[in-house]
Design a protein that fits this description.
globular, 6-stranded parallel sheet, 17 strands, binds zinc ion, 7-stranded mixed sheet, alpha/beta, 11 helices
Length: 348
C-alpha cells in the first residue's frame, strides 16, 4: 500500500484535520500522482458537512487535483513519470453502458465512482485531493499543458468542465445572447468560456460590487438581478442561460428572459427544490435542464482549449492549514474566485 497524508473530516460537525491513510498500489492501468495543487469546490463543504446526506467518514475532500506522475502501471499508455496531470470529480465508471460508450461517463447508468467519499470497485473508500498523492485509472486522468499556471488549472477539473460542457452542448458561440447567473467559482469560468466562444454575454449578479469584475472577465453587459425593472427589460432575449448558483433562489424571473425554444441550464445544486411557474416554460416552449461536469474526452478537450486560449481560473492560493478558514470564506462568497491549496504546505 502507498502511504498518504492529508486533511480529513472525521464527522459532519468536525473541522478538517491532519489524517494519515493508505492508497492501493498501482494496478496495470493506474497512474500514481504526487499532488501539487487542489482546488476548493463548494461541494467539498456540502460533502464534508453531510449536507447531501450521503457522506462517508473519514472524508478527505478535493476533486480539482493537479500533480506530477510518479509511477505508472504496466499497461498505462498515455502517461509517463514526471508528466503534469489532473484528476477531477470522478475516478471510475462502468465503461460499458450507453453513456460510458458515448464518452459521457459522468452519466454512467451504473453510477460513477466519485473521487472522494465513495467505495471504489475494489471496496476501498475513495479519498480526494486534500492530500499528498492519489492513485487513479489512466482513463480518469488528464494531461495538463505546462504552458498554464498549474494552480490556476486545478479548478478547471470541476468548475471549468461543469460550465464548459453545457456551453458546448447548447452550442454557445457567435450570434448567441447568453446569460450567466452567479459570479462565483463556477460563474466566473462560465463567463470566461462563453466570452471566449464568441457569444454576447450578460452576467447576472445580486451584487453591484461585482460589475467591474464581471466586465474584466468578459461580460458585455451586467444586470443586477435584484433590480426588477432591469430584469423585465431583458424578457424574451436570451438564447441560453447558465445558472451557477448553488443557494436556493427564484428561477422564474430568469426563465421569462429566454427566447422561444431556448434552454435554461442549472449547474449549481441547491439543497432545496425550486418552485417553478410552469407557465414560464410552456408559453414559449422553453426548457429547464441541468448538467454535471463532463465526460473524460470532453474534459481533455476543455483542458487543451484552455492551454490554446490561455484560460485559467482566478485563484487565491492557501496552505492546507488555512482550509477551515477558507471554507468559511467560500460560504460568505469572500474569494475571487477559487481557493487553491498549495499541497507543498502539507510538509510544513
Ligand atoms: Zn466540484
Ligand atoms: Zn457506465
Amino acid at each position: 500500500m502507498i502511504q498518504s497524508h492529508g486533511y480529513a473530516a472525521q464527522q459532519s460537525n468536525t473541522p478538517l484535520a491532519p489524517f494519515s491513510f493508505t492508497r492501493r498500489d498501482p494496478k496495470d492501468r493506474d497512474v500514481v500522482i504526487e499532488i501539487e495543487y487542489c482546488g476548493v469546490c463548494h461541494s467539498d463543504i456540502h460533502s464534508t458537512r453531510n449536507e447531501w446526506h450521503n457522506a462517508i467518514y473519514p472524508m478527505v475532500p478535493g476533486h480539482e487535483v493537479i500533480g506530477r506522475v510518479t509511477a505508472v502501471g504496466s499497461q498505462v499508455s498515455r502517461f509517463k513519470v514526471g508528466q503534469r496531470v489532473g484528476v477531477g470529480v470522478i475516478i471510475d465508471s462502468c465503461r460499458t453502458c450507453p453513456s460510458c460508450r458515448n464518452d459521457e461517463e459522468q452519466y454512467c447508468e451504473a453510477g460513477t465512482t466519485l473521487t472522494y467519499g465513495a467505495y471504489d470497485r475494489y471496496g476501498a473508500l475513495t479519498q480526494g485531493g486534500y492530500s499528498g498523492n492519489i492513485v487513479a485509472d489512466e482513463h480518469f486522468v488528464h494531461s495538463v499543458s505546462t504552458k498554464l499556471d498549474p494552480a490556476g488549472v486545478a479548478p478547471l477539473l470541476c468548475a471549468g468542465i461543469t460550465t464548459y460542457s453545457p456551453l458546448r452542448h447548447w452550442n454557445v458561440g457567435p450570434g448567441k445572447r447568453v446569460g450567466i447567473v452567479g459570479l462565483g467559482g463556477l460563474g466566473h469560468m462560465g463567463l470566461k468560456f462563453a466570452h471566449s466562444f464568441g457569444a454576447h454575454v450578460v452576467q447576472f449578479t445580486t451584487s453591484e460590487s461585482k460589475v467591474a469584475d464581471a466586465k474584466r472577465l468578459g461580460a458585455d453587459e451586467v444586470v443586477i438581478s435584484k433590480n426588477e425593472a432591469a430584469m423585465k427589460k431583458e424578457a424574451n432575449s436570451f438564447d441560453f442561460i447558465l445558472d451557477t448558483v448553488s443557494a436556493p433562489h427564484d428561477l422564474n424571473a430568469y426563465l421569462s428572459l429566454l427566447k422561444r425554444d431556448a434552454a435554461y441550464c442549472q449547474v449549481g445544486l441547491p439543497d432545496r427544490p425550486p418552485v417553478i411557474n410552469m407557465g414560464n416554460l410552456l408559453m414559449k416552449r422553453r426548457s429547464l435542464s441541468g448538467s454535471i461536469i463532463g465526460g473524460m474526452a470532453e474534459t481533455q478537450e476543455m483542458l487543451d482549449y484552455c492551454a490554446e486560449h490561455n484560460i485559467v481560473s482566478d485563484i487565491e492560493i492557501i496552505p492546507i492549514q488555512k482550509i477551515n478558514e477558507a471554507f468559511e470564506r467560500v460560504l460568505k462568497a469572500d474569494v475571487k474566485y477559487r481557493f487553491v491549496i498549495d499541497m507543498a504546505s502539507l510538509k510544513q
